[in-house]
Each structure stands twice: as structure tokens, then as C-alpha cells.
Amino acid sequence: MVAPIHRQIHQAITEDRELRSLIVGDPCGPQSVRALATAITANFYTRLTRVSFWKAALTDSGVLALCGAIPNLHSLSILELVDADMTQASCAALGKALTDRNSPLLSTLRLDYNSLTSSGLASMSGALRRGACHRLACLSLGFCELDQQAGAILADVMTVPRCALKELNLEGNRLEDAGWEELSSGIRRNTSLAVINLSNNRFGNSSAAIEAFRDAFAENRSLQTIDIDGNLVGDAGAVVFTDMLHHCPHITEFKISSTVSPDLYRALKVVVHSHRGRPARHQDRPASKTKHARQQKNDDAKRKALIDEFLESQAMQRLELGSQRRC
Asked: Residue ranges of the domains in the chain?
């Protein structure tokens, strides 16, 4: 008979007092976490560098118990509470635990698939700012029921002095156009972010929001990977981003909904593909600058031709539609 998960955890950490990583991928409930928190508070297992609970059904009471032990985990670098049945009720406790003067400075914080809401995020904002200005490089808040208010909160986090944040995941929330406009101000002023996932956030209805992101993506020269798939960015928005990418060689991956016009989707992919490997070719073969310039000129011509072809086809469709209506 398999022992309950909390007994398995206890056995594992009893056999190895030098345990560095604790990863639980089964439902264990708050009881197991309370036992672990008690052991940590008693100065056992304080060398843990990673604590990960995935679908562990911790609930708020389990998260609260863990929060009481976090200040004793001085070496903790990675904290993952994914699909943990955590709500905004325990966000304040987590925020307080991570701002304690003795608390660890995390490099990775993943809280995906929890009902945090923007109110819960606001109660953790102090901890996120503290982490971001030290060593928090990865923040993942996918499917956390964040709304428009989260945009301003996260923009504030991204603009702390010496921000260390390199990866931000906001997939599956509801920031919509208003939240994206607020977030774009933070992206524009940030100088560390390399990867951002903004997919499935109901954004793209407003031309102002699209233009705000265009300007933010263009000005943030550290950005390399951008995902805006699953949003409401139509052909008009795709044209805006394609033109922007033409002037942003630092962006080497850009995901957008494949529901846009096939010609325009192909044009955007051609632009992004041309950015890959460009610095390496320039460094490895300095004697071929003329050839490189000629290739870049050809790529530019191809991009322009594809975009012009798309715009011309759209204009023809409008003329044909107008003729049909007059008839």
C-alpha cells in the first residue's frame, strides 16, 4: 500500500537532511504542507533551493502554512505553486513572506492556474518589486484571472531600478485593451525583458492599444520573443506589427494568430526569420559585409513586396464589394 503523500515527503526529507529540491506533482493537501512548514521552522531542510507544488491541492490554508516557513528558506531560488487551489486570500501572506527582511530572493516565481485576481496581485506588488530589483528573472502568472487593473501593477514592477526580470508570462488572463495600454508603458521603459507571453488576453479591438504595443516593442531593445497569439489582432493590426518588425532586428520570434490573412501572416514570418542569425553572420564573417548588405536589401525588398501585395489585394476586394453593392 502506498503511503500518503505527506508521509512520503517526511520520509524523503528524513533520509536526506541535505535535500535541495522538493517537487510534488500529486494532490497532497494542506496537511502535508503544514508538516513541512513545521520542519522548516525547526531549522530542518533549510537548504532547499527549489520548492515546487503542481496540482497539489494546497488550498489557501496550505499556502499560508508555507508562507510562515519561507523566511527560513534562505537558499530558496525557485518557488512554484501551480494549480494549487490558491486564491487572493493567501496572496497578502505570500507577499508579506517575500518582503520579510530575512526572506530569500527568488529567481523564479510561478503561480499559474490559481484564482489570484488583480486584487491578489496588488497585495503582492511590494514583494514583486523587491524581487525584480534584485534577482527575480522569471515571473509566470498564466491563467490567474487577472483583469485590466493588472496592467498598471505589472508596469510598476517592470520599471523598478535595475530590474532583473527577463521572462514574463501572462497567458490566459483578461487584461483587454485598457490593461495592455497600461502594461505597454512598463514594457517601453524596461531594459531587461527578453521573453513576454501575452497570448489569449482579449486584446486588439482598439487601434490605440495596438499602437501602444507597437511603440513599446520597438523601444524595448532587449525583447527577443513575443507571443500575442489568441488575441483579437486582425489584419489591420498585423500590418502595424509587420511594419514595426521591419525596424526591430532584436525580435527573433513573434507569434500572432494564424487567422490573419495568409499573405500577411507569411510576410510577418519572413521579416522575423530574416532577423535570426544576423548578428552571428556579421561577427563570424566580417569580410562579407557587401554580401550581407546585399542579402539584407533583398530581404527588405521581399518583405515590402509581400506587404504591398496584401494591401493591394485588400483594396481590390473593397472595390469589388463596392461594385457589387452598386449593381
From this structure: 18-278
